[in-house]
Amino acid sequence: MGRPVPLQPKGRPVVVGLQPVALIDHVARVDWSLLQDIPGERGGSLRVTEEEVVRILEEVKEHTIPTPGSEVIKVLAGGSVANTIRGLSGGLKVPCSIVGARGDDDLGQMFQQNLEQAGVDLSSLRVSSGSTGQCVCLVDEDGNRTMRPCLSDASHLRAEEITRDDFKGAKWVVLNGYGFYWPDLTEKAVELAKQEGARVALDLASFEVVRRSRPRLLKLLESHKIDLCFANEDEARELMKSEGLESPEECLEFLGNFVETAVVMLGPKGCIARHGKEVTRVAAIQGIKAIDTTGAGDLFACGFLYGMINGLSLEACCKVGCCTGAGVVLGLGGEIDSAAWDWVYTQLQQHHLPVRENIIKSSQMLRQESPQVEVQVL
């Protein structure tokens, strides 16, 4: 899988994430009856208006499932790329930055503070007049999530605003399929990343995003400018629908024609991955109780990228991804709390995967400074 990434000069990120719109997630566990009255398919991500967000949040109060030790509605910085970058920076101590835009409102300030607490470099996060994006994440009693983002009036980054300086010195640039709501921006970011000599990772985001943006996604993959691609089973199936292919294995082989490394995440069944001609299958972590799967793929990507950065084998990268992906489902929202990070570090050690000494020290400091939340294990 290559050599470890050398230490960066002070102040330079190893990983840069592109998230055109800053998002605040409103996460709640609800009964299924609420979802019957909300437009779109369960389990997907369909854009809604600000008025619909307000209506959904009002209805959530009547349909919540109590979660011990958590708020009825948990509010935190969200967005797939932000989830991945926050995990890499805060939990795995990889220097990261995020390129994007937030509004000049209270929600934008909340987004910034949450990522600052995780140590993310925000020098490329623009602040513009306007509102910050929001997303309602509805979680059923089995932990499956349905997302309804509101981006219509949100402040967002424009293609003409980004430059090579935003990606200077980066070894990896992380993109997400949601970026294809602004295709010119995403395509320019890929070009700038390549000019800087960075490798590019792309997560397909959701089956609805793949359905909407399939031609552009395929065009980008066929350009061979994407080095690493993540997809879950639903996204893989949607991508392959017109090809007459359905299985994760077939999707993995298809993606392998365009990218150096491809991963299909299989939820509780683990994952399959391909690097060149090498293919591996890794089982998921067993014996845990999933509270909320929001961010599971994002945090899998966080762990997998950590393995890539440190020159681990394909199998080891998958195992790290399975550990971090499992860690986030132990609580609400796409963020691993300090107690769950301790659990992740223990899992990494038990699976004989490398954990840097600075990560363990940071974990010990967090244990002393933060109240501990019980991790629910079956």
UniProtKB/TrEMBL annotation:
<keyword id="KW-0808">Transferase</keyword>
<protein>
    <recommendedName>
        <fullName>Carbohydrate kinase PfkB domain-containing protein</fullName>
    </recommendedName>
</protein>
<dbReference type="GO" id="GO:0016301">
    <property type="term" value="F:kinase activity"/>
</dbReference>
<dbReference type="InterPro" id="IPR029056">
    <property type="entry name" value="Ribokinase-like"/>
</dbReference>
<keyword id="KW-0418">Kinase</keyword>
<dbReference type="InterPro" id="IPR011611">
    <property type="entry name" value="PfkB_dom"/>
</dbReference>
<dbReference type="InterPro" id="IPR052700">
    <property type="entry name" value="Carb_kinase_PfkB-like"/>
</dbReference>
<comment type="similarity">
    <text>Belongs to the carbohydrate kinase PfkB family.</text>
</comment>
<feature type="domain" description="Carbohydrate kinase PfkB">
    <location>
        <begin position="75"/>
        <end position="333"/>
    </location>
</feature>
<dbReference type="Pfam" id="PF00294">
    <property type="entry name" value="PfkB"/>
</dbReference>
